[in-house]
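Morning!

This is the sequence you dropped in the shared folder:
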Amino acid sequence: MATNKNQHFVPRCHLRPFTLGAAGLAISLINLDRKVLIPNAPVKSQCSKDYFYGSDEKLESAIQLIESGYGRALKDLVSNSRFLSEANKTVFSKFWLFQHLRTEAAAIRAVQLMESTRKLVDLSPTEFSLSIKEAVQIACRGFVGTMHELDDLKFCVIKNSTGVPFITSDNPAVLTNKWRLDQDKSPGLSFGVGSAGVLVILPLTPKLLLLGYDGDVYSVPNERGVIKLKNPRDAIALNRHQFLQCTANVYVHDTAHANDLFKHYSDIEATRPKERHVIHYAQLDSNDLSHTRYVVIPPEARDETKEAILHSQVIHPHPGIWPSQISIRANGSVYTNGTGIGYVRLSRARLSSSRDFWRERP
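The structure's back. Tokens below.
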């Protein structure tokens, strides 16, 4: 039986630097649904649910191990932010991936996707369903098999010396892709952690942020893994991802910044997705010796006697602006085999046993 009833899907060690006086007791938040500032809310009630991970004591212990490692690495970085050590880089990248998988937002997306699929194929809830708790447990246990997914990315820390602080949220580990979103590569397809051109973002403190990037696609000048950010526009660009990706709340360390943050949110409010995924229904159209052809049709127009496949597409919002430090590498590389896998990084292309991949310029 798990020892903690109140389980956090965003841990208190992550929220602490954004709390009042970094004391870890009270935190100010902006609720985007109601557009209100709630000052000095108890941290213990933020981003938590009773037995969110269930009652598995071993799972709880494993999660605590990851979180304690993150806490130590963050303390070390705050005390000396002149460079990003290899050890801390590893800890932060693993924490990002685990955090990306285990939030309430990720669980809700999985449940909603399952429910949409169930309704589309007319199955009963008893035949095909998933609870939030089950989705979280599946994601947490799946972390072991995916923990090396980011090993080929480059990482750096951004030091913020502007008047616009970094904010965090109830879904802080952001996955985005400037190359794909700007150039509309592979329209209709989602991207994931193995895709070419990914960017991973995690605010660490109001003054520090972790950035991971595909070094074959982007050039991000840094010195010993550190970028000094001096333009407020760049801080705003990074904060936009918290507004766009969160479930409901963003967190700010000082309420004096609230009015500016409300303005920053209003600039992109229309971009925030109402739905986080869409399901495409493709019905069998023809079949010969060499090819099987499916045609995407509206679900209500389907012929239930015909074979069909479903394709789920995650909606990735465009932030409108990007940090000036991130640019496309002119002589970069992306890999594809012309299938629905889209564009991947070299490490993923080498693992695939399907059709041969070829290299393209981003």
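Headline: The mean pLDDT is 87.

More detail when I'm at my desk.
O.
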